[in-house]
Every structure is written in C-alpha cells, then in structure tokens.
C-alpha cells in the first residue's frame, strides 16, 4: 500500500520518474534542498507549491496529499476531460463502447 504522507508520496513519485531533487526543484523554481526538506517532512509546502509540484510531476494534488491512492496517468485524465466536453448523447455512445470493451476484457480474463 502506498504511504499517505505528502513527503513520502513526493519521494515515491520523484523516484518512479527517475528525477533528482534538483531536477524537481528547477521545475518549480526552488533549490533541490527544499525538495529534500519536503520529502523528509521537515517543512510543509504551501498549497501553491504543492500544486506546482503535482503539475511538474504530472500527478494529481489529491494523490500527493494522500486523498486518493489512484495515480491517474495524464493521458487518461486528458481523455476523460475530452469526453466530458461532448454532448450528452455522444457521451452515452462513448460509455456504451467503453462498457462493452471492459465487459469483454473481464470475461476473457475469467476464461
């Protein structure tokens, strides 16, 4: 199970992306040592800094702060947002196709 603290999640995501503290710091305009302090939970970032970190690491702020364990890929979120912009009947078509595909995939997994 993933940890729930901001610092530990920040560390996990940074390491998963194979980035150094300095690299993350440059993306958000702070020194890498500051990122280290966040990761060790010596200080808490402001909401603005936490938001910048989430954007830089391409994860949701909810994930970083431990509100969810779902780490959504940026491409999936982008598609969901595109679907949300469709007309209602178009959304229903997309959902029907998606539901049929997921059902078929689950059935194949059982067999």
UniProtKB/TrEMBL annotation:
Alphabetical list of SMART domains matching this protein: HTH_XRE
SUPFAM superfamilies: lambda repressor-like DNA-binding domains
Segments of this protein annotated with the region Disordered: 1-20
Organism: Mesonia ostreae
Stretches assigned to the HTH cro/C1-type domain: 10-64
Compositional bias of kind Basic and acidic residues: 9-20
Record-given protein name: Helix-turn-helix transcriptional regulator
Keywords: DNA-binding
The keyword DNA repair belongs to this UniProt entry's keyword annotation: no
InterPro entries for the chain: Cro/C1-type_HTH (IPR001387), Lambda_DNA-bd_dom_sf (IPR010982), RstR (IPR049639)
Keyword DNA-binding: yes
């Amino acid at each position: 199970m993933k940890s729930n603290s901001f610092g530990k999640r920040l560390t996990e995501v940074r390491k998963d992306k194979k980035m150094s503290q300095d690299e993350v710091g440059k993306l958000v305009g702070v020194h890498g040592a500051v990122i280290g302090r966040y990761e060790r939970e010596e200080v808490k970032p402001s909401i603005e800094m936490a938001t910048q970190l989430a954007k830089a690491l391409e994860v949701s702020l909810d994930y970083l702060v431990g509100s969810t364990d779902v780490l959504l890929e940026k491409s999936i979120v982008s598609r969901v947002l595109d679907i949300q912009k469709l007309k209602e009947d178009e959304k229903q078509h997309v959902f029907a196709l998606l539901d049929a595909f997921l059902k078929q995939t689950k059935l194949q997994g059982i067999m």
